[in-house]
Amino acid sequence: MNRSAPVYDLLGVGFGPSNLALAISLAEASEQQGAQLPHLFLERQPDFAWHPDMLIPGSDMQISCLKDLVSLRDPTSRYTFMNYLHAHGRLARFANRKTFFPSRAEFDDYLRWVARHFDDVCAYGETVIRVEPVVEQQAVTMLRVTSETCAGIRKARYARNLVVAGGGEPAIPDAFSDVAVDDRVIHSANYLSAIDRLQERRGAPRRIAVIGSGQSAAEIFMDLHARFPGARNDLIFRSHGLSPSDDSPFVNEIFDPDFTDTLYARPRAERLKFLQVFQDTNYGVVDLELIERLYALLYEQEVAGVSPHRVLPLSEVAGVSRGNDGVTLTRRSVIDGAAEETSYDAVVLATGYTRNDMTGVLSGVRDWITGEEVDRYYRLPCRAGFRPTIFQQGANEITHGLSDTLLSVLPQRSREIRDALLAERAAETSGESAA
Ligand SMILES: Cc1cc2nc3c(=O)[nH]c(=O)nc-3n(C[C@H](O)[C@H](O)[C@H](O)COP(=O)(O)OP(=O)(O)OC[C@H]3O[C@@H](n4cnc5c(N)ncnc54)[C@H](O)[C@@H]3O)c2cc1C
Ligand SMILES: NC(=O)c1ccc[n+]([C@@H]2O[C@H](COP(=O)([O-])OP(=O)(O)OC[C@H]3O[C@@H](n4cnc5c(N)ncnc54)[C@H](OP(=O)(O)O)[C@@H]3O)[C@@H](O)[C@H]2O)c1
């Protein structure tokens, strides 16, 4: 062990909303209980940013701004969205708008404002590339966390505990695995910067395909229409049609913080069934108002006698090839297998995200981890002799429900993780003093 490298009680991978909410919780514990837990979060982006390449002009939040980083736990906290509005002199005008759903740009600005209060506990511009066990007398006493800056400089730090909240990685359909490096094939996670780069290098695209039928696909389809007037855009997806997300009030209760206990207590098979039944609250679905705008656009084109855009349901991409004149997709009907080829100047994969820390950042300690499902307090199960606790946020839908990847439970989850950490430390300290 390199004794000169710093040792922390807690290191965090990522500084998105999940670990930002945890930073607030830890600061509260320090202020209110005097609990000191030296910690640092490592974030690969150069500064705080919330899905920056999807800050599409006109896009709004999908949950109430009352479900910010802290309000549902402590509405009197200085880190509420309301206090952000107040601090920026916009509270009254926000109220006049009669909405709980601010733009994504405004919520990003709120998150950045909170994050600035925590600059001292985040190292930006560092990607965690490896987590390794430190073995002393056959026990793992700590974790060695290696990060790399964009200049290729590597840094090692040690952690008594780790919290992983790295979000999702772009899901790339198999048919695109060979062409994913082509600048004409863009995942929605990189949309805004990639489409700008493409335009700069190759000029405005005239024929564009968007794959997928979720919120990202619909937002991007509409943005492409506004951005490249005259372009012919196809929206290609496997399902029957664009379906609205169910955000009705009774159903919305599945995202309430209290619901986590209800779901966690159920047998695994029931939890899996639950995820399936409520998929349409979050995945492969679109906000109804956006569906209506998209439909109206297609109708207006029909009235005008031009129909440059097409919505192509029940279609899968069976083949992809690229040439100088475009990326050619072989589109196959999922009903009768009929195939058709079309060439595009750009293809946007709005195909969602995968979440698997075991094959990613935790692969170096995988042998010590005995299962992929966390306990109620988000701790991964580990072999005897492995002393650090590894907390996982955002990859626990199977145990904690659909709210796990969203903002809804952050105030409660961050308190639970913090309290679990403090309880473990208190137990260690009392064990040491008894010995
Ligand atoms: C376009 C879009 C809009 C959304 N809108 C909503 C919404 O309105 N409401 C809602 O509830 N949810 C929404 N979501 C869901 C979203 O997952 C949550 O809002 C939220 O971002 C989850 O926070 P997180 O911190 O867990 O993950 P993320 O926000 O993804 O943050 C993870 C962070 O970890 C960093 N990171 C990853 N790997 C490493 C590494 N190896 N080393 C260092 N840093 C790393 C990333 O750079 C990132 O900053 C949206 C998702 C998307 C994609
Ligand atoms: N304004 C906002 O707040 C906003 C904006 C964008 C996204 N979001 C959030 O971000 C999260 C992700 O949304 P998303 O739209 O990016 O992803 P998503 O909801 O997971 O949708 C992914 C889409 O890609 C399709 N797909 C996946 N794999 C495919 C494959 N191999 N071949 C063809 N199609 C494939 C899926 O089709 P199938 O259904 O056929 O599998 C689905 O239509 C959600 O929580 C969403 O609410 C929020």
UniProtKB/TrEMBL annotation:
Belongs to the lysine N(6)-hydroxylase/L-ornithine N(5)-oxygenase family. GO terms for biological process: intracellular iron ion homeostasis. It comes from Rhodovibrio salinarum. It holds the Pfam family Lys_Orn_oxgnase. Its cofactor is FAD. The keyword Signal does not apply. This is L-ornithine N5-oxygenase. SUPFAM superfamilies: FAD/NAD(P)-binding domain. Pathway: Siderophore biosynthesis. Keywords: FAD, Flavoprotein, NADP, Oxidoreductase. The lineage of its organism: Bacteria, Pseudomonadati, Pseudomonadota, Alphaproteobacteria, Rhodospirillales. The keyword Secreted does not apply. It comes from the Bacteria. GO terms for molecular function: oxidoreductase activity.
